[in-house]
């Protein structure tokens, strides 16, 4: 009887752990999907504008809101190292949004389009990849002994590129006399 109770307790504990892991996997999948969708929506808006096509701002805004919702949930559940990457990606997606919104006011449209395309295909793409890699590592799906160093280096590169772009956007905004907007 005692052994049966212990086995039942172990089984209940294993079921709780499996449910918790499934919730975590679902959250991570949704967070990854929302980050990718937001980056792609912004990148597509830039590409369409560069071709002279009309851009539906609702698509980008919907992707932004979906990301914000997933990120707010993640802020309450992510472990510190994972949250650090997600927070950096969040700030980087915000800069990407500013890049798209500031395009029409740019005094050098060709340069602004090149800069935007470089951001979405380079540092921001790398940041979203780093987020996915971090989530997979945290889930135990991808084990890489050098992961910690890759995470630190990737975060440093993303943060540096984002800060450089933010300074450039701010200088351009001030030069054009455009009032600051909330992101």
Relative strand content:
under 5%
What is the helix fraction of residues, given as a range? over 70%
Strand and helix order: HHHHHH
- Annotation field: number of helices: 6
Structural class: mainly alpha
What's the rounded overall pLDDT mean?
A: 91
Distance from N terminus to C terminus (CA atoms, Å) equals 62 Å
Q: Main β-sheet, in a few words?
A: none
Protein described:
This protein has helices at 2-50, 57-75, 80-102, 109-121, 123-139, 147-176. The chain is elongated and about 80 Å long. The protein has six helices and no strands.
Key attributes of the depicted protein:
183 residues; mainly alpha; 0% strand
Could you outline the blueprint of secondary structure elements for this entry?
Blueprint: H1 2-50, H2 57-75, H3 80-102, H4 109-121, H5 123-139, H6 147-176
Helix pairs in contact: 1-2, 1-3, 1-4, 1-5, 2-3, 3-5, 3-6, 4-5, 5-6
């Amino acid at each position: 009887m005692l052994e049966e109770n212990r086995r039942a307790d172990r089984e209940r504990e294993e079921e709780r752990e499996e449910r918790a892991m499934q919730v975590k996997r679902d959250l991570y999948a949704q967070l990854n999907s929302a980050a990718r969708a937001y980056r792609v929506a912004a990148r597509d808006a830039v590409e369409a504008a560069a071709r002279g096509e009309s851009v539906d701002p609702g698509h980008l805004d919907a992707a932004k809101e979906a990301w914000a919702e997933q990120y707010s949930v993640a802020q309450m559940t992510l472990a510190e190292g994972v949250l650090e990457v997600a927070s950096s990606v969040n700030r980087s997606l915000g800069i990407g949004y500013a890049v798209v919104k500031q395009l029409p006011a740019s005094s050098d449209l060709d340069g602004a389009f090149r800069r935007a395309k470089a951001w979405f295909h380079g540092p921001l793409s790398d940041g979203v990849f780093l987020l996915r890699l971090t989530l997979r590592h945290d889930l135990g799906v991808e084990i890489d002994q050098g992961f910690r160093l890759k995470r630190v280096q990737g975060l440093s590169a993303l943060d540096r590129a984002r800060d450089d772009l933010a300074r450039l956007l701010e200088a351009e905004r001030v030069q054009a006399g455009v009032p600051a907007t909330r992101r």
